[in-house]
Amino acid sequence: MSKFPFDIVLFDLDGTLVDSARDLCPAVNHALGTIGRDGVSETATRNMIGGGTDMMLTRALEATGGLVDEATYKELSGALLEFYWDNIANNTVPYPGCLGALDQLAARGCKLAVVTNKSEKPARELLDALEMTDRFAAIYGGDTLGRERAKPKPDILQAAIADCGGGRAAMVGDSTYDVRAGKAANLPVVTCRYGYHDVPVHELGGDVMIDHFDELVGVLEDL
Ligand SMILES: O=C(O)COP(=O)(O)O
Ligand SMILES: [Mg+2]
């Protein structure tokens, strides 16, 4: 077997490794309910994920009657996070084929890392609950280096690569935050059609798109 072309594969979390809208949507709707707003559908929520929890809440507010004053926003953000932490892995599951693909990459000697715009604490809690933490050599959240350095900045990608010992890396994600961060770090980017998109899927960019995790190893081999 010829040497695998990547030493490190970086993964976005929500909409890439795990289908977490199933638990994020009820958390958003819980927060909206505290100010008497109707909820948003899970389908609508999917397009609001990718820029971190605050971005998701802002988009949900815009979709249900408009933004609120800062004090109310803070309360809503707190209510959302508290509900989410209590229900973080009720329905969230790794996407079909995810664990098998991670196994295959590890068998090829790749180091794996998570680079998410979710805050690090809930990201780690979710990965722990799904018994996935040990698979990753590095886990960076959107707040790990400070929110201003979250994706689409390349910083958490570069930090994860350094933690993995450096080498040739690729980025796998589902939103323009991932594509822009990957490009800013000069990495090839694989996008996931099944994930959560902040723009129409054909506008995502990236180098290659997969429909299912079973395609990932082959696609990386050909990049
Ligand atoms: O929490 C979010 O909105 C996004 O998280 P992600 O970067 O793992 O997609
Ligand atoms: Mg994502």
From TrEMBL:
Pathway per the UniProt entry: Organic acid metabolism; glycolate biosynthesis; glycolate from 2-phosphoglycolate: step 1/1
Keyword Hydrolase: yes
GO terms for MF: hydrolase activity
Protein name as catalogued: phosphoglycolate phosphatase
Keywords: Hydrolase
Organism: Erythrobacter westpacificensis
Stored InterPro entries: HAD-like_hydrolase_sf, HAD-like_sf, HAD-SF_hydro_IA, HAD_2, HAD_sf, PGP-like_dom2
Entry annotated with the keyword Hydrolase: yes
EC number: 3.1.3.18
Catalytic reactions on record: 2-phosphoglycolate + H2O = glycolate + phosphate
